[in-house]
Amino acid sequence: MAIIQKLVKAVQEVPIELQRFVQHQYPRFVTGGGFDTLEAEVPVFMFHTINRSTFQSQLEFLKRNGYRTLDLATFMAFLRGEKSLEAPSVLLTFDDGDKSWYDIAYPLLKQYGLHAVGFVVPHYIQEQPTTATASKGWLSWPELIELDHSGVIEIESHSQYHARIFTAAKLVDFFNPQLPDTLGLDVPWIGSNGSYTNQLPWGTPIYQYGPRLEGHLRYLADAEVQAACTDWVQAQGGVSFFEKSTWRRELTQYHQTLPLTQAQYETEQERQQQMLEDLAQSKEVLSHRLGKSIEHLCYPWGAGSLEAIDLSQQVGYQSNFWVSLGDRNTNRVGDSPFYIPRLKDDYLLRLPGEGRKSLFSIFQAKLRRRATTVEIY
Question: Is residue 287 over pLDDT 90?
Answer without folding.
Answer: yes
